[in-house]
Design brief:
Blueprint lengths: L1 H29 L9 E4 L5 E5 L15 H11 L11 H14 L9 H10 L6 H17 L2 H11 L9 H9 L8 H9 L13 H17 L5 H9 L14 H16 L8 E4 L3 H14 L6 E8 L4 E6 L17 E2 L5 H10 L7 E4 L4 E2 L5 E2 L11 E4 H7 L2 H11 L1 H10 L18 E2 L1 H12 L10 E5 L5 E4 L11 H11 L27 E7 L2 E7 L4 E7 L11 H12 L14 E6 L15 E6 L14
Parallel strand pairs: 1-3
Antiparallel strand pairs: 1-2, 3-12, 4-5, 4-16, 6-11, 7-10, 8-9, 12-13, 14-15, 15-16, 17-18
Length: 636
């Protein structure tokens, strides 16, 4: 009898040994299991995490060193005390659980380590079967073989289920308590630790008494393990706290994520970015300021917005808003939508004019005009409220007041084809119809295209292309892309660019108001800097774009269905708040290139202002093109 038992033990041991060898050889040959739920992490321009999310955008990811350390300790105590000692399976717990399950004749006790639970979250269902438990153990061993403990623990904290459709400790902390894990009290930590054991039954929203019982059980255990002192445990047990039960999400962060991920995919020529680290040009303060402005000034039902803040010198995008709320509509109106420009197209027209002989003091007559063309067509544009000077006006005043007659006459002198050609040089790729109304912005482009065009003006005439991704690292930390700043090419005349920038400050100068008001008069007194800018409107679109040498902000507002807009200042107010927030330390003046002279000009006659002129505006000219005669129309 003893011989049979001895042989049985030998053969059983041999069988187990062969099984273990086979299993470990299999694990080795299979290689590391894919952590296919690794987040894409997006960083701002200071290297701080802007957002970390799964590829499908469903859940926020938090790195291990950002999770409350007491929450980590409490979870390890309750779920897996020997996590950092075992190799994936806690054999002592497994043995006890097996005996308990055999005694009950069913799978009752789990004894799953954190590694096993993470494996289940990644690869398996939650059914209670022996087959699933074996698979769970196998995957846990594979995880432990190929990944370090902190990687596994971080993955666990970001995939564990907390009920109510919430996965991950950070998302659960925000949902239940309205704050990040690093702000949780001991009482809140204990409750959060208690939930995953039975997420539905322990929900503090649906079963508050049961949840509190489990919370007190956790507190007692933490005191026993000396994670909390007796006093801390007592205070935690009597603490009153509020259950929020709402997900706090940035309504605009999805637009950033989509834009950055799409740019990275385009750079790399691939769609798979799981676990990638994307470093960007986005600035948290600029993004917060733009988001705050949108939330404050877009308060009409269904009114939408598209806005971008950028550095015009290198094209680095600092903030982006694609709509009022990403969760309600992920369509990015700053990138994907193309809307009629209105008068924001005029600076492109007038830069072309400056390069072709116009100056700030060039005069044309502003009056109702019927244009008849050789092909038999005609065109009769009008000014806002049908207001006209009925006299000559300078380019400077026409631009500040957004005079349509002046713009049409200028374009007919230049030809629409020449203006289209200039637009292409400035980065506008959308279709532009070379027709007379092009001067009034009847073609449609995106916010990004318009911002690109104006960035050429803001930076003194250098080629610029917008971008947001500065570096890409793979899931293994390998740098696979690094953005390089190319040597800037001068594509615009620096003198005429400077002159245009000065002309575009005129929209905020109430001294230029005459037969029409300057288009920026409603916000001019609230601006601390000397910005250049232009507004524009069509029946269904309102635009505002403006800049300093350091920062440019472009804003569009309107309805997705192109219905007519009521008179609203939303675009200008959003722009005002965003540009001011971006210049809290003040802004630099536009650099004056060589060969520029300044003179005080009467904005109506275009001649040097005399002591009798009621309005005198400082204007800039290429040396030799400035007016030589003094205005005499006001002498009497």
């Amino acid at each position: 009898m003893g011989k049979i038992i001895r042989h049985t033990i030998i053969w059983t041991g041999a069988g187990l040994g062969l099984f273990m060898i086979t299993m470990f050889v299999t694990i080795y040959l299979l290689g590391p299991p894919d952590l296919n739920n690794q987040p894409i992490t997006i960083y701002d321009d200071e290297g701080e995490v802007l957002v970390a999310l799964y590829p499908d955008g469903q859940t926020t990811w938090q790195q291990l060193d950002e999770i409350n350390p007491t929450l980590i300790e409490a979870t390890l105590v309750m779920e897996d005390r020997r996590f950092y000692q075992h190799g994936g399976l806690d054999l002592k717990r497994v043995g006890g659980a097996m005996l308990e399950n055999i005694r009950h004749g069913r799978l009752k006790e789990g004894a799953s380590t954190i590694s096993q639970q993470y494996a289940r979250n990644l690869y398996l269902s939650h059914e209670r079967t022996w087959t699933r438990k074996l698979k769970e153990a196998f995957y846990a061993l594979r995880l432990e073989w190929f990944y370090d403990k902190d990687t596994i623990l971080e993955g666990y904290f970001n995939t564990i289920y907390y009920g109510h459709g919430i996965y991950g400790a950070e998302a659960a902390s925000q949902f239940y308590f309205g704050k990040s894990t690093d702000a949780l009290s001991n009482a809140e930590i204990a409750l959060l630790v208690a939930i995953p054991n039975r997420p539905n039954a322990n929900s503090p929203i649906d079963h508050i008494q049961q949840a509190k019982q489990e919370q007190h059980r956790v507190i007692r255990r933490l005191v026993d393990e000396e994670i909390l002192s007796d006093t801390e445990g007592y205070l935690a047990s009597i603490e009153q706290f509020e259950i929020v039960g709402e997900q706090e999400t940035d309504p605009h962060i999805g637009y950033i994520a989509d834009y950055v991920i799409n740019e990275a995919k385009s750079i790399l020529g691939q769609n798979q970015l799981d676990g990638y680290q994307l470093y960007t040009t986005f600035n948290a303060k600029d993004q917060q300021a733009l988001s705050k402005a949108v939330l404050q000034h877009i308060n009409k039902d269904e009114l939408q917005v598209g806005a971008i803040t950028a550095d015009p010198n290198i094209g680095a995008i600092k903030a982006i808003i694609g709509g009022v709320n990403y969760q309600e509509s992920p369509f990015n109106r700053a990138i994907q939508a193309k809307r009629m420009l209105g008068s924001t197209f005029k600076p492109i027209l007038y830069y072309t004019a400056l390069e072709n002989g116009f100056t700030a003091a060039t005069t044309l007559v502003s009056e109702p005009t019927f244009f008849q063309f050789n092909d038999g067509t005609s065109y009769a544009p009008g000014n806002f409220n049908q207001a006209y000077a009925q006299d000559s006006v300078t380019l400077a005043q026409a631009l500040a007041l957004s005079d349509n007659i002046y713009a049409i006459k200028t374009q007919l002198f230049l030809t629409p084809e020449r203006v289209v050609e200039q637009s292409r040089m400035l980065g506008i790729t959308s279709e532009l119809d070379p027709v007379p109304s092009l001067a009034l912005g009847t073609s449609s482009v995106s916010v990004l295209e318009l911002l690109t065009a104006y960035s050429h003006f803001a930076n003194g005439g250098y080629q610029v292309r917008p971008f947001s991704v500065t570096r890409v690292e793979s899931a293994e930390g390998e740098i696979i892309y690094q953005h390089s700043i190319e040597r800037r090419e001068q594509v615009l005349d620096p003198q005429q660019t400077f002159i245009l920038n000065q002309l575009l400050t005129g929209m905020f100068d109430p001294n230029l108001s005459s037969y029409l008001s300057v288009t920026g008069g409603s916000i001019s007194e609230e601006l601390s800097g000397d910005y250049a800018g232009k507004s524009g409107s069509t029946p269904s679109d309102h635009w505002m774009i403006g800049y300093s040498p350091e920062l440019i902000v472009a804003v569009w507002t309107g309805y997705d269905d192109n219905r007519n807009l009521e008179q609203t200042q939303a675009a200008k107010l959003i722009w005002r708040d965003a540009i001011e927030a971006g210049h809290s330390q003040g802004s630099d003046a536009f650099t004056v290139p060589p060969g520029i002279v300044a003179a005080y000009i009467d904005p109506s006659s275009g001649k040097l202002s005399s002591e009798h002129c009621p309005v005198s505006r400082l204007m800039f000219f290429v040396e030799g093109t400035e007016p030589k005669q003094y205005c005499q129309i006001h002498d009497q």
